[in-house]
Amino acid sequence: MKIGFGIPNNQGVKDPNDLVAMAVAVENMGCHSVWVREHLFHSSYVAERLGDRPYHDALTVLTAVACATKTVRLGTSVLVLPWHDPARLGKMIATLDQLSYGRVDLGIGVALTKDEFENLGIDFASRGKRTDEILGALQALWTQDIPEFSGSFYHYSGLRFSPKPYQKPYPPILIGGFSEAARQRVARFGDGWHTLRQTPRQFAKSRADIFERTENAGRDANALRFSLSIPIRFTDTPPSAPVMDRTALTGANDDIAETINAYKIEGLDEIVLGISSAEMKLNIKTMERFMLDVAPHL
After folding, report:
1. Tens digit of pLDDT for each residue in 129-162?
2. pLDDT tens across 190-241, in order?
3. Cα–Cα–Cα angle for 161, 166, 169, rounded to 5 degrees
4. What is the number of other CB atoms lying within 10 angstroms of the CB of residue 42?
5. Helical axes 16-29 vs 58-68, angle rounded to 10°
6. For residue 38, how far is the Cα from the chain centroid?
């Protein structure tokens, strides 16, 4: 089981340099990857959590992390694809992949914050269609010297696009979400599935569905990667839910290992831990305990 760490760029950390320091610290602990989240405005539940505290930009933070680290993979959990112009995003991701010598994992999603779409002037109802088109556009931009692409929203023709990503043909595209549309998007475009807070039981059911859809699409389902982002908190109280119905990692060392191993049995490849706090010391202390006392039992 690979271990990832959710950098709390979404938790109101005052100094973004602290986020980079956290990434360096967990790399030194042996974590496989670090991940960032994305919102552009303090929308609905984001505003409730942060008030006037900052939500730092995902790709800017990852760029700084890329320059300060050597081995951890750099994941987005997730970029909201309909908010991005594919040519600009394609250049940013390709540059980051070159800068990090091929360490980018591109997690993407569609988001549910309707007020944020309204503020950006982007149609909420067509976000799925726009996402699928952007994925196709990115694949063309990254694999064709002179990209040719024509869709309902974006058209490219006759001009060279560079740089290309370091990874070939491009960084792994991990589809977020757990709706039927998201699972079908994995089958059509994805190199894997990156979901949030699914129970082991829910994860197993969705994974089986994704396998079937991917094979029906004529693609190799065994090549897919499966990762899950989940909060962690060490407590003195054991989890109240049965292991297959848990949506968070809580309890003592053995409880948390039991939950993660349930995911592992169902085919999870990587678990991304979120501390849900802006406190530097708490993030580091939690990850140190996890890597020392839990990880060896996975």
Report:
1. 999 999 999 999 999 999 999 999 999 999 999 9
2. 999 999 989 999 999 999 999 999 999 999 999 999 999 999 999 989 999 9
3. 75
4. 18
5. 50
6. 9
Helix (H/G/I), strand (E/B), else coil: 112: coil
Residue for token pair 């059911």: 205
CA dist list (Å): 80 to 59, 112, 131, 172, 278: 12, 10, 9, 16, 22
CB 170 within 8 A of CB 139: yes
Place of tokens 């993660």: 260
CA 272 – CA 275 distance, rounded (Å): 10
For residue 71, the surrounding DSSP H or E stretch is none
Cα dist. 62→33, 144, 227, 280, 298 in Å?
Answer: 11, 26, 19, 18, 28
Count of structural domains, the chain:
1
Confirm whether pTM is higher than 0.90.
Answer: yes
Query: Can you tell me the distance from the alpha carbon of 158 to that of 176, in angstroms, rounded to the nearest whole number?
Result: 32
Query: Which residues fall within 8 angstroms of residue 112, CB to CB, at 6 or more apart?
Result: none
Total residue length of the chain = 298
Average pLDDT over residues 75-93: 98
Name the residue range of residue 289's domain.
2-297
- CATH number for position 18: 3.20.20.30
Listed residue (40, 50, 28, 33) closest to 84, CA to CA: 40
Which DSSP string do the residues of 131-145 spell out, in sequence order?
HHHHHHHHHHHHH-S
